[in-house]
Structure to design on (520 residues):
């Protein structure tokens, strides 16, 4: 089942997507919903960010080859995390499928994509055991953790390098069913494949993160957990289009443009 | 003017606090409100977290003596930040004035307070100049950035050391008027003063942070910005009560208890 958030005729709503048909609902998949007789064609609606999270979690270094590459580029020894320490991003930076990533005029050329699996929390949860951890999820979507690598090195935190407005494309929708072990993440720049990896080749899996996190914190409906990325990105420039495709979910596509 | 968020007779609402009288409103101070004929005595309402933020910003190291103390305790050289790099906390950890900070059963004895000034954003803002930066604020409240110092050293991020449920008391209300230069922050443990500092003795002031941040990100109504702390805390234990008082705002008071 696919949940889409969209705008049509000036109204933003959730809908259930089947093929190219969107069946509009009232309410939302978190607090509850009711079907309506309103239907739309996918091509005729504006796709919105699938959920504005209460808390925006991001796993950071969670694929071994990405950890090694980041260390190499930073000129430091690779330190593979020894335990699942969750990080944070900020919701100001979220944009929808199809919207433009704006590269600030003072950003360097080292603007990179990071295609990621995103887990979407569906119900309040604390103290989950690993075997029950995925039960708190509504489903899965796709994120692009756009990063300015020189700011990432020069700033004490990730506030600017990763949380500049428009740096967090997410979508296009939430897929409730997923078979993690069979999924592949593929990233294309202007149609050419630049990164491909097994989505579930994580250092710490989704269930392990959720189990560890919920020993100390409460997850709430609408919280999102970005699971990290593998591979590396070329420098992105004005006019580039980045597609992040994950098997069984769909493709998140966003153009990039430098601020005038 | 003081904005208070409270619950009375099962209803949570905003009100305007004058002396010990709460005048209930409908709506909120961010999107707009209307007065009602309903009045309450402060002592008879349950005080709630004054706002659940869209994004929870925290300045981290922003007072020179605190930077030096943290470095000394960590056995590293003190590095005073060269520019205002903002950090993040998580709203799951927020609790109201009077609510109990629960120390997890596996936390060490090094649980500390950090009494902080909190700026509350009132209107959407981007690209603010320093001289206009404070114009986006609704007002000011008080935060206690409770921290488990050993987790702060052992974990790669602050997710557990600073964002465990109940580790972020905030309140008791939002004061719209403040003369930062005349304000003092005083922290008491069980009634005895343990920390006192000039609230505005910051490395980077509120206006400088907001001006820098909004060159890259949009602030939204309800966002909160915690401004960092000075001084140091004793180890806090079950039964302790920590008061954070800031001149002109009020006193945020919370008991501590270790998880059973």
């Amino acid at each position: 089942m696919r949940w889409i958030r969209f705008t049509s005729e000036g109204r933003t709503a959730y809908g259930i997507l089947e093929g190219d048909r969107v069946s509009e609902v009232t309410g939302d998949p978190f607090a509850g919903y009711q079907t309506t007789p309103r239907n739309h064609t996918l091509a005729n609606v504006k796709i919105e960010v699938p959920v504005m999270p209460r808390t925006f979690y991001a796993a950071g270094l969670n694929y071994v080859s990405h950890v090694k590459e980041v260390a190499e580029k930073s000129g430091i020894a690779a330190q593979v995390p020894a335990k699942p320490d969750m990080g944070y991003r900020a919701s100001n930076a979220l944009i929808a499928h199809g919207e433009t990533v704006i590269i600030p005029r003072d950003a360097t050329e080292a603007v990179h994509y990071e295609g990621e699996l995103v887990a979407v929390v569906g119900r309040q949860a604390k103290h989950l055991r690993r075997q029950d951890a995925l039960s708190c999820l509504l489903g899965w979507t796709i994120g692009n953790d756009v990063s300015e690598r020189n700011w990432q090195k020069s700033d004490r935190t990730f506030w600017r390098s990763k949380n500049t407005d428009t740096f967090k494309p997410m979508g296009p929708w939430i897929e409730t069913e997923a078979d993690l072990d069979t999924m592949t993440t593929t990233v294309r720049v202007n149609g050419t494949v630049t990164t491909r990896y097994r989505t579930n080749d994580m250092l710490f899996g989704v269930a392990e993160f959720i189990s560890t996190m919920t020993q100390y914190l409460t997850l709430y409906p609408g919280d999102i957990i970005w699971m990290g990325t593998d591979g590396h990105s070329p420098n992105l420039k004005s006019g580039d289009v980045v597609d992040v495709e994950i098997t069984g979910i769909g493709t998140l596509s966003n153009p990039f443009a430098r601020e005038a």
About this structure: The interface with chain A takes residues 52, 54-55, 60, 81, 83, 85-88, 90-93, 104, 126, 155-157, 159-160, 163-165, 213, 215-220 of chain B (CB under 8 Å). The CA atoms of residues 22 and 40 of chain B lie 5 Å apart. The first strand of chain B starts at residue 2 and ends at 8. The longest helix of chain B spans residues 64-74.
